[in-house]
Amino acid sequence: MLKQCVCLLLFLGCATTPAATIELKGKASVTGTILAEKRDQIVMDIGYTALVIPRNQVLKLLHDNEAAVRAVAAPVPAAQAAPDSGGGRGFYRTAAASAQEQSVRELVDALGSAVVQVRTPAGLGSGFFINPDGFLITNFHVVEGETQISVEVYAVKDGQLDRKTYKQVRIIALNKFGDLALLHIEDKGAPGFVSVPLGEADKLSVGDHVFAIGSPLGLERTVTEGILSTKTREIEGGLYLQTTAQINPGNSGGPLFNLRGEVVGVTNMKMNSSEGLGFAIPVESVKYFLNHRDAFAYDNDNPGNPYRYLEPPNRTRKTAGE
Questions:
Q1: From 29, 150, 195, 252, the catalytic residue
Q2: Number of structural domains the chain divides into
Q3: What is the DSSP letter of 64?
Q4: Which of 3, 110, 173, 253 is 20–30 Å from 59 (CA)?
């Protein structure tokens, strides 16, 4: 019986069933391959796992041809970055499909101001803005155990770096096992920040050119260039992008870009006593973290607890008179 079940799952995984998009309550959506449709639930393969989605959470089910028709009916301007289509609900953005490759110099001029330095009493790292409202991504290990966090933002004026330090920085969400952290600048009078779009690491090919911007050893706005060595380097159970772009302490949490100016990874480590062996978290993990940020929410009133627990349902509460 077990062998029969395994064979069935393998067959379903290899089938050429058209992709579909399920629109959920709360304006989120999930795209994948429908494995089964039942009276009370839908089973969908999303590439790395199978989701069982209750019918009462589904607003609409669109198959790939329907989604294509809807996309044609509402085109995105070529020069405009598209908002995310997942649970981020516009919290971050993705680049337009028509975005063209540019030189590293052109991209650094356009996107460099979105890359910041994250400082704590224990050390420093890098980060990058995902939207103009001051939300930024860095590594968990950059802010682990810290509550006093400052962010230095760099803008180029008259050919010189003009730095501004923000000290009202709140931790929004943490994923220790994914080594990701979401921060928010809450200083009064903070301007709209330059932000960067998120790309797709899955579309990269080995040998593609990539570059990183960060603050290795505190040297802000350092740019290093290289190629993608492999897309699936397994380290301690996780899959990472491996690159020849130089990664050093202080680069942690900074963006790894493709030549379309999209973030394809978050740099987080290198091999000691070696060069040209840098690693980055694939951007798909970042999107998952952002789309499900409520599940990773950090309670600032209880720094020892990385999650925020919701109030219990009304029916479980009792008033004093009961």
A1: 252
A2: 2
A3: H
A4: 173
Is residue 286 within 8 A of residue 266, CB to CB? The reply is yes
SS in 3 state form for 226-292? EEEEEEEEEECCEEEEEECCCCCCCCCCCEEECCCCCEEEEEEEECCCCCCCEEEEEHHHHHHHHHC
141 is a catalytic site residue: yes
CATH number at residue 152: 2.40.10.10
Q: Which listed residue (84, 126, 179, 195) is catalytic?
A: 179
d(CA 258, CA 198): 10
Q: Is the dihedral of CA 254, 260, 262, 265 positive or negative?
A: negative
User: End of a domain among 135, 157, 185?
Assistant: 185
Q: Judge residue 314's burial from the number of C-beta atoms within 10 Å of its C-beta, 0-12 exposed, 13-18 middle, 19 or more buried.
A: exposed
When comparing pLDDT for 162 and 102, which is higher? Answer: 102
What is the C-alpha separation between 287 and 19, in angstroms, rounded?
20
Domain, as residue range, for 63: 2-73
Residue from 139, 250, 119 nearest 185 by CA: 119
CB-neighbour burial class of residue 190 (10 A; exposed 0-12, middle 13-18, buried 19+): middle
Give first-to-last CA distance, the chain, whole Å: 53
Q: What is the pLDDT of residues 59-70, one digit of tens each?
A: 777 765 444 334
pTM score, two decimals?
A: 0.68
- Ramachandran category for residue 89: left, alpha or beta (phi over 0 → left; psi -120 to 50 → alpha): left
Environment class of 282 (CB within 10 Å of its CB; exposed 0-12, middle 13-18, buried 19+): buried
Half-sphere exposure of residue 321: CA atoms within 13 angstroms, side-chain side: 0
Per the residue annotation, which of 141, 184, 209, 292 is the catalytic one? 141
pLDDT at res. 83: 55
Does residue 35 form part of some domain?
A: yes
SS3 110: helix
Distances (CA, A) of 54 to 18, 43, 57, 196: 21, 9, 6, 35
Asked if residue 306 is part of any domain, the answer here is no
